[in-house]
Amino acid sequence: MSRPWIFAGPDNGALRNTSFNRRVWAKAFEDAGVSKTHFHDLRHTGNTLAASVGASTRDLMTRMGHSSTRAALIYQHSTDER
What we know:
Elements: H1 17-32, H2 40-52, H3 57-64, H4 69-75
Helix pairs in contact: 3-4
């Protein structure tokens, strides 16, 4: 089964990190006049927001594709209720 890529490389496969950062990510931020942000920051924000609205540790593990709770607990750091 092939993965549906949001950003595809020149061969329609996975986009290499260095190519994506140079050709797409940095230019998008420059064009928008926004300070530099790392692509991984989106993952952190998305999972922190999911935790803040009630995602369980198991939900976060599924979202992230992790088999241990360690990473999921990192994303729940800002939600005292969880």
